[in-house]
Each structure stands twice: as C-alpha cells, then as structure tokens.
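For homework, think about our next protein:
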Amino acid sequence: MSSKTYAILVGIGAALAPFAAFSLADSATQPAGPPTSTTAPADPALSPEVVAILDRLERKGTQIDSIESRIDYTKIDPVLEDRQDYQGLLRFKKLEPNPRFFIEFDTFKHEGVVKKTKQWHVFDGQWYIEARETTGTITKTEIVRPGETLEVFKVGKGPFPLPFGQKKADIERHFTVKLVPPAPGDPTNSDHLECTPRPDTEMARKYDTVHFYIDRKLDLPVRVETMEKQEGNRIIASFTEVKVNPGLVASQLNLPELKDYKIQTEPLRGPSSTPADRDTR
C-alpha cells in the first residue's frame, strides 16, 4: 500500500473510527507489532473537558449504523509549495463480520487546474480496493480472510491508527490529548483536540501531532490535520453535509462496474496464501 494511499486512509479514518468504535492503523503489509501494555501511562490524566468530549464520541459511536458525507482531502508539500485537492463522497456502514467503507473522489485540483477524474478507495470487509480512472487500474489487497473477524481499525492492533471510538484508557495508552483554544478558521461550533502519538509507536514514526475538530452537535470529527514525517506533507481532511444513519444498504458501498480496467490482486501471505495465489489480469 503506497504512502500516498496510507495518508488518504488516515484522514478518512478520523471520520470512520468513531462510527464503528474502531480506529485506523498501520499498513496492511506490516505486522501490527508487539502487544500493548495494559498499564495506563504515568503522565498527567486527561482534563475534564477532554474526558467529556471523548465520552461523547464513544457514546455516539454506539448509536451509528451508517454515515454519508462529502469529503475534501488536501495534501500540501511546504518545501515544493505544491498543493493537491481532492473532493468526493464518503460512505460507511457497520456490517458483519467487519465494517465497510466507500470513498469516491470525483474532482482533482492542482496548480489552479480542476479535473473531473475519479478514484475509489473501498474496504468491502475483506479486501481494500483502490481504483483509478486515470490509469484504468484496480488494486485489491486482502486485509481479512473470508469469514474472519478482525478489528481492522483498532489502534495498536488493526492493519489500517487513530484514537476515536476507543475507551479513554486505550486513547491515553497511545496518545497524549489536550483541548486547544478556538482560533480563526476552525470549523464552526467545534472543539479542537490535539493528539500527540506516544514515543516509539508506529504513529509517532509516521506522523507529528494529529489535530481533530469535533462538531459539538454531531459529536463527530469534521476535520483532521496532520504532518507526515517521512515526506513532510501536510494532510487535511474535512467532512461536510454529514448524514448520520441515512439508511445505506450494502450495495451502495460496492465499487462500480469498471469495464476494461486492469486488476491486480494481492492476497494475504500465510499458510492459505502463497505467491502462486497472486492473480494479475
């Protein structure tokens, strides 16, 4: 999975995680790492204001079956002074044995030029699927074996790391969190949480501080901002026109039929998956 794709998924994960009581984590091609200690960190406790916000997020997560929203995703390279903007649609639904999401970007803006070109990012409960109109390609990466239940979004465990939808103890274990005073340009009627990955974690190696803006009425993230350490890109994902429990059905989260696209399949490695299983056509 490319670093660009991973960055997109991290931004998207900020919205998905609280809905499913999960969170986005590491690349599917890497192990989840050693078990995390169950002992809470010995630094200052969360402030009462942060505790109240996290309580609301966790409670909201138990009330949501599905969600649909517009998504604006921006990547800024401050060294090259380059900015790329993507706009599209996000859908999420709790399903068994694993939740699903669907993202369709339909507009791309770069250097003042707007292009109507599509790309898709889909997790169907088993496969992560990326499709691009510009290249006519579909890449399918197996995340979970058929019928297997996996906490694919859970921080510290899953293959896709973000702190929401978790118990406060789990959040404290992976992040330090503080409430930041409002500032011009913040989303209207939102609380700004600054989440700093704890040292020697995968998130700390990949990202600097992650900023979440929580809508006080929805009790859901409406913006996430972070900086990639390796590539130095600033990432911003915003969610608008949010519809909670809009009655989505599973078929609305399927990749559309894309005729003549070249498909590459990357199955899980292991006893039931060998290099011979790889299928490219």
User: Anything to note?
Assistant: Residues 3-31+49-280 form a domain with the outer membrane lipoprotein receptor (LolB), chain A fold (CATH 2.50.20.10). Residues 18-42, 159-164, 273-281 have pLDDT under 50 and may be disordered. The first helix runs from residue 3 to 20. The radius of gyration is 18 Å.
